[in-house]
Structure formats: C-alpha cells, structure tokens
Amino acid sequence: MEPSTADTCSRALRDGPPWWRFQWMRKWCDWRWILVAAFLMPVIGQAQDVERGTQYLGREIAMTMHWTGANWLIRTKREREEAASTMRKELRLKPGMVACDMGCGNGYHTIPMAESVGEKGAVYAVDIQQEMLDLLAKRCEAKGISTVVPILGGDTDPKLPEDEIDLILMVDVYHEFSHPAEMLAGMRKALRKGGVVVLVEYREEDPTVPIKPLHKMSKAQINKEMKANGFKLVREFQELPWQHMMFFGRDDDASFEETAKAEGTEDGRKETQGTQEE
User: Fold this and answer.
1) pLDDT tens sequence across 210-245
2) Disulfide-capable partner of 136 in 66, 103, 107, 266 (CB 3.0 to 4.6 Å)?
3) What per-residue confidence (pLDDT) applies to 257?
4) Helix axes 219-228, 180-190, angle to 10 degrees
C-alpha cells in the first residue's frame, strides 16, 4: 500500500537523514510548517521511479538524503568524525582499477577515488538525483578530473556495466535503498572476478555514535542482507571511529579462497587491525 503524503511527511520529520540537524531544516518540525511540508516533501522522492519500499528483512528503510543537503557531505569536520582518508586507504585502490562510488552525492569520495585509480582507471559515480551529479561534475571540472563516469541510477537498477567493476563503495548509502535486493542484484552482475562490494555504515551497536538509529546498521543485519543476496564476507576493517567497513564478494567467486590458499590461510575472509567477530 502506498504511504499517504501525510505519512511521508511525518516519517521525514521523524527519521530524516543527519542534515536535518541543520537549524534551517529543524524549523520544519514547527507545527506551523506541517501544512507546507505536506506539499513540499514529495520532492524528496522525485527521483524515484517506482513505489518506495519501507521494510527489508526486519529493517526499516531510511529516506534518501535530498540534494539540497549536499553541503553536509563535504563538511570540514567529516575527516575528523569518520577518518575518511583511512577508510579510502583500506580500499587499496590501484592505478588502472575500475571502481564505483554508489550513491556518490557531490563526490566527497569519488574525487579521491579517481585520483587513486589514475588516468588508466575509471570511477563510475552513481546517484539517483541529477542535481547531485551536476554538483559532482562541477567539482571534477575544478579538479581537472576526466575519469569519472556519471550515471543517473534508478531505485531498482544501479545501471552499471556487467562484469567490469573491481570495487563498489557504498558509504552510509545502502540503508537508504528503497529496493535493496534489486540494487544488490545489479551490483553483483557488475563485479568482475575478485571484485568486492564495500559497505560503510554507522555502527548500530554503539550508542555513542551521534547518528539517528534509522541511519545505523549492525554487523548482524548487514551480514544477513548480503548473504541473502548472494554475497559472502571476505574482509572487514573495524578501526573507523563511527562506522563498520565490510567487504563482500560474490558467493560463487572462488578467487577469494584461491588467494587464501596461496597465502596459507584457512579461508577467503580476512580481518584487518583487530577486527572482532559479532
């Protein structure tokens, strides 16, 4: 059943993404603005091409961040809060690789990724809002970067080329997918042998992480959803200040086990810097 406009408005006010903390957005919570919000909030979903899902495998799906909050993505304190450069270092990108920044926004991670893969590599930048891609294009032009390939994705299709991607990064994005299974199916097809999907999500298990609960995920829930969609955990890094960082390969890709055997380890899963089990 499609939610009513009032339900959508109410849910947005209650569970909107972190940029709702901006003072100019908080005034929407004033009852005097509820009527106005009822007319304006559908704009948030204007890029959606199908009815939005609200639940998946026991998890409530968060709303997508609107492009008008894009400045929050490039806030100056983000490096201190999330250790973004450390996270990107753990991606282990090399010149010539083909990567994807899924839910790229205005390119906070896209541009450094493009610099890592160099002129012989490429970074597919996927977002469901054209305005985000326009902001990204301006930043790439200012940096002189020409290896970023913008893609206007859909709610059920990332629109990536098949069997071409070495690494797909999703930073605080996956929990907002309205149709996770369909999106993961598209990404699974896009991976080449040895390719990985990397999920970076705020830790639900840690109550000190100052993010709304709807925008957090536990390791258990991440593993549950990825396993259900044909992925296996092959590596993880748990030294970021606020976030899980988990690497998943296709469950039918034997290259991880082959690599592990060559390295003398028991299986294809690797843990980095003191990673703990669930």
Assistant:
1) 999 999 999 999 999 999 999 999 999 999 999 999
2) 107
3) 87
4) 70
- Which residue in this structure is represented by tokens 């296996």? 232
- pLDDT of 48: 41
Distance separating alpha carbons of residues 171 and 101, to the nearest angstrom: 8
Ordered alpha helix ranges (H), the chain: 5-15, 23-26, 34-40, 78-82, 84-91, 110-117, 130-143, 180-190, 219-228, 255-263
More confident residue, 63 or 40: 63
- 176 in Cβ contact with 15 (< 8 Å): no
d(CA 145, CA 27): 38
Please state the rounded mean pLDDT for residues 89-102: 98
Query: Which of 164, 162, 184, 166 minimizes the C-alpha distance to 174?
Result: 184
Backbone angles phi and psi of 4, in degrees to 5 = -75, 165
Nearest to 2 by CA among 37, 45, 40: 45
Per-residue model confidence (pLDDT) at position 258: 82
Q: How far apart are CA 50 and CA 28, in angstroms?
A: 26
> Is the pLDDT at 11 greater than 90, yes or no?
no
CA distance 164 to 193: 9
Give the integer Cα–Cα distance in Å for 268 and 278: 18
Alpha carbon distance 37, 68 (integer Å): 15
**Is 26 in contact with 33 (CB distance < 8 Å)?**
no
CA distance 142 to 270: 38
- Whether the CB-CB separation of 214 and 60 falls below 8 Å is answered with yes
Q: Is 270 helix (H, G, I), strand (E, B) or coil?
A: strand
Among candidates 4, 8, 16, 13, which has minimal Cα distance to 31? 13
CA distance 61 to 5: 17
Residue 158: its pLDDT value, please?
Answer: 98
